[in-house]
Amino acid sequence: MTQYKISPSILSADFARLGEEVRAVDEAGADYIHVDVMDNHFVPNLTIGPLVAAAIKPHTQKPLDVHLMIAPVDAIIPEFAKAGANIITVHPEATIHLDRTIQLIHSLGCKAGVSLNPGTPLDVLDYVLENLDLVLVMSVNPGFGGQSFIDYTLRKIEAIRKRIDAIGKPIELEVDGGVKVDNIRRVADAGADVFVAGSAIYNTSDYKATIAAFRKALAG
Ligand code: DX5
Ligand code: ZN
């Protein structure tokens, strides 16, 4: 049976109370803490850096699932590893040498992920997939929380699920953007096993009830 994971994105948290907000989703049943790092260059928004990642680290025992939307990305990767990142995910467009970037992440003792934007074709995975711990499918164009799920990405999730199963390694398939209680089942049916949710969790008053509703939808 698939072990589903929920990774709340702190992008929609109250940044003035970030430590508390991280602890709250941890206690509400999060499996990972999703940290969206944006540089106002690769994506049109600016969020947090390694200092803030290090500041939230003591507030949770859950793995920090760090999604780097930064270009060029390599120079900052060691800083996030030092800050306590457990998973580091990069976009292929943000590095000239994707294989080298994946090796760098592993050499720092972190799990490595590659993220595909909605319009990014699958062939970037051809030679690197078996070296990855995670593939992150963007189901919105990255930059902001609270956008609507792009339906054609379900086909992409299905295609990547087939490739992962063909390799037979425990590579996680994470989906990020517009995941809600009413569509998570469809996303899981397409083959995802890790679900990022920002606004769907942080814009509700009872995080525990929302995460429980996700799990109920996944069980149904
Ligand atoms: C988008 C980010 C997502 C975003 C998800 O660029 O990578 O992690 O915060 O937010 P929701 O769940 O609100 O779509
Ligand atoms: Zn993200």
From TrEMBL:
Substrates-to-products reaction catalysed: D-ribulose 5-phosphate = D-xylulose 5-phosphate
Physiological role: Catalyzes the reversible epimerization of D-ribulose 5-phosphate to D-xylulose 5-phosphate.
Pfam family name, one: Ribul_P_3_epim
Binding site for substrate: S9, H67, G143, F144, G145, G146, D176, G177, G178, G198, S199
Gene responsible for this protein: rpe
Residues that bind a divalent metal cation: H34, D36, H67, D176
Keywords: Carbohydrate metabolism, Cobalt, Isomerase, Manganese, Metal-binding, Zinc
UniProt-recorded name of the protein: Ribulose-phosphate 3-epimerase
GO cellular component labels: cytoplasm
Cofactor(s) of this protein: Zn(2+); Fe(2+); a divalent metal cation; Mn(2+)
Pathways per UniProt: Carbohydrate degradation
Signal peptide boundaries: none
InterPro entries: Aldolase_TIM, Ribul_P_3_epim, Ribul_P_3_epim-like, RibuloseP-bd_barrel
Gene3D superfamilies to which the protein is assigned, alphabetical: Aldolase class I
Lineage: Bacteria, Pseudomonadati, Pseudomonadota, Acidithiobacillia, Acidithiobacillales
Catalytic site positions: D36, D176
Note on how the cofactor is bound: Binds 1 divalent metal cation per subunit.
Organism of provenance: Acidithiobacillus marinus
Keyword Endoplasmic reticulum: no
Keyword Nucleotide-binding: no
Gene Ontology molecular-function annotations: D-ribulose-phosphate 3-epimerase activity; metal ion binding
